[in-house]
């Protein structure tokens, strides 16, 4: 017995259903995330504009102890919000201090920057295992090759020292600086609205 052949027409125009932009994952907006994150120099410029006066930041008459833990937590949060640019520059200052007191790290970083400068200046592609590397890839390779040298020069210990010292100094300042002496609750809400 022979089966009859059945033909089904499946031609036509199909469009995917419209997605609500508020729900679900939007991949094109995720790929453009780098355009919304400021670069290092842009972040530094913004922080420099928002820096509080150093005389106010270092005023010793405003250092007081706090009565209880809940007020301490509130004080730390308010100090971190108010002096965030100053704290960033304290962190960068500690990094500069560590670089100046670690000559081997400074020499390795100087060699890496000089090599990248020469690579950018020549701007010639290089063949590596039958693959062409552009100048950015060559600079990245120099940076990767410098990692073991930085480790041998003690960059890991310096990094942890900078992080620990920054945390210690910033925590001490945020815990003991009496922010209520310079910023009232009304003024703080006004400052947060204008930003």
TrEMBL record:
Transmembrane segments: 87-117, 138-154
Keywords: Membrane, Transmembrane, Transmembrane helix
UniProt subcellular location: Cytoplasmic vesicle, Secretory vesicle, Synaptic vesicle; Membrane
Pfam family name, one: PRA1
One of the record's GO cellular component terms: Golgi apparatus
UniProt keyword annotation of Membrane present: yes
Residues covered by region (Disordered): 1-25
InterPro entries: Prenylated_rab_accept_PRA1
Topology of the protein relative to the lipid bilayer: Multi-pass membrane protein
Basic and acidic residues bias: start-end ranges: 1-21
Entry's family note: Belongs to the PRA1 family.
Name this protein carries in UniProt: PRA1 family protein
């Amino acid at each position: 017995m022979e089966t009859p052949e059945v033909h089904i027409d499946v031609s036509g125009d199909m469009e995917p259903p419209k997605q609500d932009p508020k729900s679900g994952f939007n991949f094109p907006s995720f790929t453009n995330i780098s355009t919304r994150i400021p670069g290092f120099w842009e972040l530094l410029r913004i922080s420099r504009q928002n820096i509080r006066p150093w005389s106010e930041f270092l005023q010793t008459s405003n250092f007081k102890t706090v009565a209880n833990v809940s007020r301490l937590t509130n004080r730390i949060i308010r100090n971190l919000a108010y002096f965030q640019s100053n704290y960033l520059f304290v962190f960068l200052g500690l990094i500069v201090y560590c670089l100046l007191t670690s000559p081997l790290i400074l020499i390795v970083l100087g060699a890496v920057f000089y090599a990248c400068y020469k690579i950018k200046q020549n701007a010639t592609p290089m063949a590596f295992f039958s693959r062409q590397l552009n100048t950015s890839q060559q600079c990245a390779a120099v940076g990767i090759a410098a990692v073991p040298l930085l480790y041998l020069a003690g960059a890991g210990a310096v990094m942890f020292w900078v992080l620990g010292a920054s945390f210690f100094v910033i925590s001490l300042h945020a815990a003991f600086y009496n922010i209520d002496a310079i910023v009232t609750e009304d003024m703080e809400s006004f400052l947060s609205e204008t930003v």
